[in-house]
Amino acid sequence: MAVYVVMEPPTRADAVLVRDGFHLFGFLTPPIWLLWHRLWIEAIVAFAAAMVLATVGEVADLGFAGTLLSLLVSVYVGIEGAALRLAALRRRGWCEWGVVEADSFDDAEARYLFDAERLERGEPREPSPPASPQPAALPRRSGPALGLLNYPGKA
User: Fold this and answer.
1) For residue 155, what pLDDT is reported?
2) Among 27, 73, 97, 124, which residue has the least CB neighbours within 10 Å?
3) In-domain check, residue 11
């Protein structure tokens, strides 16, 4: 199951669901993926960082290691792409409605719309599972712990 973060705009427009997790297209083509999601500054930074790392690898004559250096940008965008999108939406005034867990985007959207309608009618959200009971406190014993020596005068 995938986890989707639901972001609502400051106006009454449609909400955006952002899937949390690894983005393969963001890994394969970081600047294009960032531009597709309207992350202009992040795309420029990713392109510049990839070029700088490739140049450093070429100047230092690192060979294949230089190529791996520029691959770091791809790995970062693939892993943190969703976080970059969420941060950009927050900067634009969007607020986080909550998290939806579903098998597909359509299921996540349906769950969000169902819960949003329930909240508008004044009904509570689906009950969360009960919290696990807290373990009983163990009695404290003074003395050596894990086989350490007991020092005289210390309790």
Assistant:
1) 53
2) 124
3) yes
